[in-house]
Amino acid sequence: ATVDANGKGFDFTDSLTSLIAEVNIPNVIYNGLSLENIEVSAKLHNGLSDVALKSNNKYIDADIFSGGNIYGDEYTWSIVSDISHIDFKSLNIIDTISSGAVKFTADARYAPLNKSIDADLNVDNIDILYGSKRIAGKQLNLKFDANESATNASIVNQDLKLRLSSPVSLDTILAYVDSTTAVLNDITSNFDADIRRLQSNLPAFNIDLNVGNNNIISDYFKSDDIAFNEVSLQAKNDSLISIEANVDKLIAGETRVDDINLSVIQNTDTINYTILVDNEPGTMDDFAKVRASGYIRYNKFTINLNQQNISGSTGYNFGTDITLSDSI
Fold first, then answer.
1. Strand boundaries in the chain, DSSP class E
2. CA proximity to 163, closest of 64, 265, 233
3. Distance between CA 328 and CA 318 in Å, rounded?
4. Cβ–Cβ under 8 Å, residues 187 and 244
5. Of 54, 132, 62, which Cα lies nearest the Cα of 102?
6. Sign of the dihedral through C-alpha 207, 211, 217, 220
7. How far apart are CA 223 and CA 216, in angstroms?
8. Which long-range contacts (CB under 8 A, 24 or more apart) does 2-8 make?
9. Phi, psi of 169, rounded to the nearest 5 degrees
10. Where does the chain have alpha helices with state H?
């Protein structure tokens, strides 16, 4: 390996610090593997920096460039990456992922004084071999922006659209993590769903998800012989928790369900839920219409189930109350 470097200063956030460095590695042994043709370069001058990595061998074939401003009241950074191949399994980096390839660009901005963040990631294509499954997709966009009064994020991939928003800062959301985790741990360990406590320990948020049948998620499920026409979800927490979800034309192997609808609404210390299944003629005619409803309050769970066939005759129609308790 050869290293050529010169510079001035050690504080990389100081505009007077400068650096020019180039590293050339014709061959290096990593975990018993021979990695060849690796080049790394870095430059820093007047607060502007860029870093480049090139690797051309059978285990890592990549060309990555990044650069930006790391001085002043606002930091900016951009990345252009073309990773044609990484052999994760041979490199012993991730056991569950065999290999991967991704081509993307990313831009980010951060203003420390008002804690303002903007980030935009565009993935031209991604192809990952995950065990026996392949996760592949194109035209994937992720956006994130946050300031002292709002946090927003979105993911778009063909007919997949996910939007998350909250009228609070990112710091506020992160501060909720510990309290939310503590409440959820109490619920699962004590079999006691304190809904009002849960709601008050969640940040205000709004989630809007729509997934069609042509995107990276639907393609992943298709490999397990699961398909759907459309999935939608709206969830929010303002003064109360509410969730509305729908699955249109779900097919899993030989099983088909035409329409599934879920409604969850908080009423003070209670979560009321309703699940509706509505099938067209020729689809599970004995279960043409199924309705399950009830509530969850502290350690009590209720369910009322009604089932009708395609002729409208009622089959199952019953209700039950379940009280959970910790036996220890």
1. 2-8, 18-30, 33-45, 48-56, 60-69, 75-86, 97-111, 116-130, 133-146, 151-157, 160-166, 205-211, 226-237, 241-252, 255-267, 270-278, 289-297, 300-308, 314-323
2. 233
3. 31
4. no
5. 62
6. positive
7. 11
8. 7/44
9. -75, 165
10. 88-91, 170-190, 195-200, 216-222
Distance CA(174)–CA(203), nearest Å, equals 9
Instruction: State in Å, rounded, how far the first CA of the chain is from the last one.
Output: 63
Place of tokens 């990484």: 86
In angstroms, the CA 215 to CA 157 distance is 6
Q: What is the pLDDT along the chain (328 residues), one digit of tens a residue?
A: 788 888 887 777 777 888 899 999 999 998 889 999 999 999 988 888 999 999 999 999 999 999 999 888 899 999 999 999 999 888 888 877 788 999 999 999 999 888 899 999 999 999 988 777 888 889 999 999 999 999 999 999 999 999 999 999 999 999 999 999 999 999 888 888 999 999 999 999 999 999 999 999 999 898 889 999 999 999 999 999 999 999 999 999 989 999 999 999 999 999 999 999 999 999 988 999 999 999 999 999 999 999 999 988 888 888 888 887 765 4
Buried b (16+ CB within 10 A) or exposed e, 68-95: bbbbeeebbbbbebebeebbbebeeeee
Q: Is 254 left (phi over 0), alpha (psi -120 to 50) or beta?
A: alpha
Alpha-carbon gap, residue 246 to 212, rounded angstroms: 12
* Six-digit token string for 291: 């309705």
Alpha helical stretches, state H, 170-292: 170-190, 195-200, 216-222
Cα–chain-centroid distance for residue 222?
A: 19
